[in-house]
Amino acid sequence: MTTLNHTVVSHTVFRLLGVPGLEDQHMWISIPFFISYVTALLGNSLLIFVLTRPSLHGPMYFFLCMLAGADIVLSTSTVPQALSIFWFHAGEISLDRCITQLFFMYSTFIAESGILLVMAFDRFIAICYPLRYSTIFTISLIGKIGMAIFLRSFVTIFPVIFLVKRLTFCKNKIIPHTYCEHIGLAKYACNNIRVNFWYGIFVLMSTITLDVVLIFVSYVLILRSIFRMPSQDARHKTLNTCGSHVCVIILFYGPGIFTTLTQRFGRHIPPHIHILLANVCILVLPMLNPIIYGIKSKQIQEQIVHVLFTNYK
Questions:
Q1: Contact between 307 and 300 (Cβ < 8 Å)
Q2: Upper half-sphere CA count for residue 287 (Cβ side, 13 Å)
Q3: Which residues contact 221 (CB under 8 A, 6 or more apart)?
Q4: To the nearest whole number, what is the mean pLDDT of the chain?
Q5: What residues contact residue 232 under an 8 Å CB cut-off, 6+ apart?
Q6: pLDDT at 311
């Protein structure tokens, strides 16, 4: 009697398709991708340079600097790969590169969420306890907060590397997307991916969802404090200081929530729409952050004008 020894071969190289169904439009799709990426790089680099000047060394400016740095990493981890697909049809990607990409993308996204939470807490202390603001937000505390934010994002996403590496990819090696994502990659494995699925839910609930709840609570307390102010001028001025942060919060969480809802309930929506919506989360915020804070903050405006024009007179 003969025994057949079946050997399962695990794929170590995958192919990203970009935006399936719109291959003939890839060159046109690349234009907003490229413009968004260049704007994000230049805008956030300028913002970091401006925020490191001695006149802008308040706690909020340190957090803005961290947010700008995270924006650069987030867009750089995904957009160049998409552009190489659109321009050169270079969609081939190794498993290790795929895992590296999703690690940086997810960890940076969680770090940005943490930064937005701390910025909400900063506004809460500044508005509700103005006299204690400078004693609470010391340089030492800001440094510890920064370390905690990036440590949390690293610790929560690091296990994903091992959860993906343990899988045997014997199914399809064609990924219909512009970048690698955890469950999108894991579903091509022969193994049971229940652990991957539930760990993904745990990360989502313990980071992004928790941050959204705490930000909401912070702004409820902020609004309660604002509407107790006797002067209408004071209320308007205080609300204006929160305006840019609220805009960034909406831009950060809004597309992600909308994308999740369309994936869950919009099964009739074409796949290329889902992929384009997923890319909006990566493209829009890094591009608009410097513009929003540049428009809303007079101090940042003055420093940008000084850097761009005064030095060249």
A1: no
A2: 15
A3: 124, 128
A4: 88
A5: none
A6: 54
Q: What is the dihedral of CA 233, 235, 241, 247, to 10 degrees?
A: -120
Euclidean distance between CA atoms 116 and 214, whole angstroms: 10
Query: Which stretch of DSSP H or E encloses residue 14?
Result: strand 13-16
Say if residues 74 and 282 touch (Cβ distance below 8 Å). Answer: yes
Could you give the strand order of the β-sheet that contains 174-175, starting from the edge strand earlier in sequence?
A: 92-94, 13-16, 174-175
Element (H, E) at 93: strand 92-94
Using CA atoms, how far apart are residues 252 and 245, in angstroms rounded to an integer? 10
Weakly modelled stretches of the chain, pLDDT under 50: 1-5, 313
Q: At what angle do helices 59-76 and 26-51 cross, to 10 degrees?
A: 150
CATH 3.30.70.360 for the 13-304 domain, yes or no: no
Residue 177 structure tokens? 């997307």
Q: Which of 57, 132, 69 is nearest to 299 (CA)?
A: 57
What is the DSSP-derived secondary structure letter of residue 179?
Answer: S
- Quote the pLDDT of residue 2: 43
Instruction: Write out the two tokens for 105.
Output: 């993308």
CA distances (Å), 229 to each of 12, 238, 243, 299, in order? Answer: 61, 10, 18, 25
